[in-house]
Amino acid sequence: MSAIDGLPPLREVIARHDLRAKKQLGQNFLLDLNLTAKIARAAGDLTGCDVIEVGPGPGGLTRGLLAEGARHVLAIEKDARALPALAEIATAYPGRLEVIHGDALEIDPLAHLTPPIRIVANLPYNVGTELLIRWLTPAAWPPFWQSLTLMFQKEVAERIVAQPGGKAYGRLAVLAQWRTEARIVMTLPPEAFVPAPKVHSAVVHLTALPGPRYPADPAVLNRVVAAGFNQRRKMLRASLKGLHPEIEALLIQAGIAPTARAEEIGLEQFCALARGLAAAPR
Ligand code: SAM
Question: Whose CA is nearest to atom 22 of ligand 1?
């Protein structure tokens, strides 16, 4: 079956450009263009948006983004072998696809884009988590992007959207949910990828809130959450002891039982504690 964009099927593209997946680049490709179109739709209405795609590889998701109407796609790819395949896509969508060859961890794509900007990526898990944390912790809020639509290992996706009370709830959940609305919008079995990874995957869609859910200084909140979850089995009066000599009183003032553990504490209480700490004389 020929694709709606008139380009060849992805299996053919991969064979022609000898794009055999390399493990060290975390390459697990999506070859089903119906699926990549569905992921592109999960990113929201792309018409009138510039989209940053990180790790386009042979371009399945890139084709989905363009077919779903993205105004402009800026694709950052580390593997030079993918560039000829991406150039063919750029020719099929004149003026709408720009490809940068490089490491997404080292490139600032902003110079190339006009808001509104959405970010979409199917990346190796470690690169994806590092970029997510950077995108969630800019110097100022709101950030330059409107939404992030990112593929993760399912277990990592569950940590991003986790609620208090379970093992999945930790720093990543607090960081993500403090300033975004985060949802799992799709789960994918290993067979959706070539080659198939060992684990299930999930797409998380994060929409930037105009401001944080509850006021707090980001650095203080980060300190509280890091200390609390680094020793998540300990009671907070012990795990947070190093933050302030009067930590028990500050916990009580924030409405938190000093005997509680970090994984029982919701965002609102963490923020109240961060405010109390910031205001407390030492
Ligand atoms: N988006 C394609 C798809 O869905 O079929 C490819 C996904 S594959 C999981 C990850 C892609 O990210 C590969 O093309 C790989 O070369 C690229 N990649 C890995 N590390 C990268 C980095 N640091 N910067 C940019 N691209 C990277």
Answer: 103
